[in-house]
Amino acid sequence: MSQESSEDRPPRVVLGVSGGIAAYKACDVLRRLTESGHEVRVAPTEAALRFVGAATFEALSGQPVATGVFTDVEDVPHVRLGQEADLVVVVPTTADLLGRAAHGLADDLLTSTLLTARCPVLMVPAMHTEMWEHAATQDNIALLRRRGVVVAEPASGRLTGADTGKGRLPDPAEIVDLARLLLTKRAALPRDLEGRRVVISAGGTREPMDPVRYLGNRSSGRQGYALARVAAHRGAHVTLVSANTADLVEPSGVRMVRVGTAEQMRASMLTESDGADVVVMAAAVADFRPVDRTGHKIKKTDRDPGALELTRNPDILAELVEAREAGRLSAEVIAGFAAETGDPDTTVLEHGRTKLTRKRCDLLVVNAVGDGRAFEVEDNDGWLLAADGAEYPILHGAKSHLASILWDAVSEQFARHEKPSVS
């Protein structure tokens, strides 16, 4: 009898939990994974069970929980779990577990599973800043990454007690989003953006009419945040210029710049892009703004509503390209996004091709919008257009998957720009 294929069953995830105070957040990761259709087996360390009991993990996963290799010996769990897994996620990953994994120790079920796994492995560290920054920890992380393990960047914020700094566990939603991406790719994320400076815009600008009202759009900023998150995991130094995205969790390891209007977005993008290797305009910038903003709320009786006078906002993407052509910007790759709707005479893709020609950027992602597409949703699709005429359809999927496709294309652009070595 043939074995069940991976297409005929839900994805199998091993959720490792090590002994840190952030272990309780693994419960939220577990819940999100099981609710989205994944089959999850929890492999905690003995120390983890001092923070969260086995009964909690068993109730949330519907699977038995063990820490040692001598439970259910007849099933050889220390080998089988790793062999059958589609993904191993360790939340949180302590400094101790990083060291044991880096040096191939296998003294419990979790570390044995890490040695037998041939699927993508995601480790999400959480520890005090001093432990994260220690040379031993950084050496262990570098070693694991060279082996293909995805070691996520921790967030900055409140730690145990009154301490604050880098080392906080990223938000569970961010962890699950990265896990979904690794399951989709069925491979580790490359560190192909290591050392690159990346600047990304996200969100939708708002143009005030008065202290209450504004002209804006429906962009949530999720796609720009996904771009920033994936770029950071691929090794880039990322600056995210974010407009009106207060309800989104800041991506871990990303520098944030907050703006509101198109003029503020323009000023920040031009400033932050100085010295960048890649610039991506993913924000939805309002095309127009009111000529005048009143200092008081406009009343129904104040004036004719049709008298609102508008002026055009700057074309930030075009200005970035012009700055590069004039030698004021050194970015090797400039990419944009085009949210389009078709009309009786022109398709979405045709509109995108016209915009690519007009903007003169290197890459352009074209999204069809409307009816629950692109804006204010978790998933996305469209086309990736390149200045050399290449076109790639992007199938419907998580916005992090689209982000990964764009960064693959950016890496290809870098490869083309590299000068051949002279022997």
UniProtKB/TrEMBL annotation:
<feature type="binding site">
    <location>
        <position position="337"/>
    </location>
    <ligand>
        <name>CTP</name>
    </ligand>
</feature>
<keyword id="KW-0479">Metal-binding</keyword>
<feature type="binding site">
    <location>
        <position position="297"/>
    </location>
    <ligand>
        <name>CTP</name>
    </ligand>
</feature>
<comment type="pathway">
    <text>Cofactor biosynthesis; coenzyme A biosynthesis; CoA from (R)-pantothenate: step 3/5.</text>
</comment>
<protein>
    <recommendedName>
        <fullName>Coenzyme A biosynthesis bifunctional protein CoaBC</fullName>
        <ecNumber>4.1.1.36</ecNumber>
        <ecNumber>6.3.2.5</ecNumber>
    </recommendedName>
</protein>
<keyword id="KW-0436">Ligase</keyword>
<dbReference type="GO" id="GO:0046872">
    <property type="term" value="F:metal ion binding"/>
</dbReference>
<comment type="function">
    <text>Catalyzes two sequential steps in the biosynthesis of coenzyme A. In the first step cysteine is conjugated to 4'-phosphopantothenate to form 4-phosphopantothenoylcysteine. In the second step the latter compound is decarboxylated to form 4'-phosphopantotheine.</text>
</comment>
<feature type="domain" description="Flavoprotein">
    <location>
        <begin position="12"/>
        <end position="177"/>
    </location>
</feature>
<dbReference type="InterPro" id="IPR036551">
    <property type="entry name" value="Flavin_trans-like"/>
</dbReference>
<dbReference type="InterPro" id="IPR003382">
    <property type="entry name" value="Flavoprotein"/>
</dbReference>
<keyword id="KW-0210">Decarboxylase</keyword>
<feature type="domain" description="DNA/pantothenate metabolism flavoprotein C-terminal">
    <location>
        <begin position="193"/>
        <end position="412"/>
    </location>
</feature>
<feature type="binding site">
    <location>
        <begin position="314"/>
        <end position="317"/>
    </location>
    <ligand>
        <name>CTP</name>
    </ligand>
</feature>
<dbReference type="GO" id="GO:0015937">
    <property type="term" value="P:coenzyme A biosynthetic process"/>
</dbReference>
<dbReference type="InterPro" id="IPR007085">
    <property type="entry name" value="DNA/pantothenate-metab_flavo_C"/>
</dbReference>
<dbReference type="Pfam" id="PF02441">
    <property type="entry name" value="Flavoprotein"/>
</dbReference>
<feature type="binding site">
    <location>
        <position position="355"/>
    </location>
    <ligand>
        <name>CTP</name>
    </ligand>
</feature>
<dbReference type="GO" id="GO:0004632">
    <property type="term" value="F:phosphopantothenate--cysteine ligase activity"/>
</dbReference>
<dbReference type="GO" id="GO:0071513">
    <property type="term" value="C:phosphopantothenoylcysteine decarboxylase complex"/>
</dbReference>
<dbReference type="GO" id="GO:0004633">
    <property type="term" value="F:phosphopantothenoylcysteine decarboxylase activity"/>
</dbReference>
<dbReference type="Pfam" id="PF04127">
    <property type="entry name" value="DFP"/>
</dbReference>
<keyword id="KW-0511">Multifunctional enzyme</keyword>
<feature type="binding site">
    <location>
        <position position="359"/>
    </location>
    <ligand>
        <name>CTP</name>
    </ligand>
</feature>
<comment type="similarity">
    <text>In the N-terminal section; belongs to the HFCD (homo-oligomeric flavin containing Cys decarboxylase) superfamily.</text>
</comment>
<keyword id="KW-0460">Magnesium</keyword>
<comment type="function">
    <text>Catalyzes two steps in the biosynthesis of coenzyme A. In the first step cysteine is conjugated to 4'-phosphopantothenate to form 4-phosphopantothenoylcysteine, in the latter compound is decarboxylated to form 4'-phosphopantotheine.</text>
</comment>
<comment type="similarity">
    <text>In the C-terminal section; belongs to the PPC synthetase family.</text>
</comment>
<feature type="binding site">
    <location>
        <position position="287"/>
    </location>
    <ligand>
        <name>CTP</name>
    </ligand>
</feature>
<keyword id="KW-0456">Lyase</keyword>
<dbReference type="InterPro" id="IPR035929">
    <property type="entry name" value="CoaB-like_sf"/>
</dbReference>
<keyword id="KW-0285">Flavoprotein</keyword>
<keyword id="KW-0288">FMN</keyword>
<dbReference type="GO" id="GO:0015941">
    <property type="term" value="P:pantothenate catabolic process"/>
</dbReference>
<feature type="region of interest" description="Phosphopantothenoylcysteine decarboxylase">
    <location>
        <begin position="1"/>
        <end position="197"/>
    </location>
</feature>
<dbReference type="InterPro" id="IPR005252">
    <property type="entry name" value="CoaBC"/>
</dbReference>
<feature type="region of interest" description="Phosphopantothenate--cysteine ligase">
    <location>
        <begin position="198"/>
        <end position="423"/>
    </location>
</feature>
<comment type="pathway">
    <text>Cofactor biosynthesis; coenzyme A biosynthesis; CoA from (R)-pantothenate: step 2/5.</text>
</comment>
<dbReference type="GO" id="GO:0010181">
    <property type="term" value="F:FMN binding"/>
</dbReference>
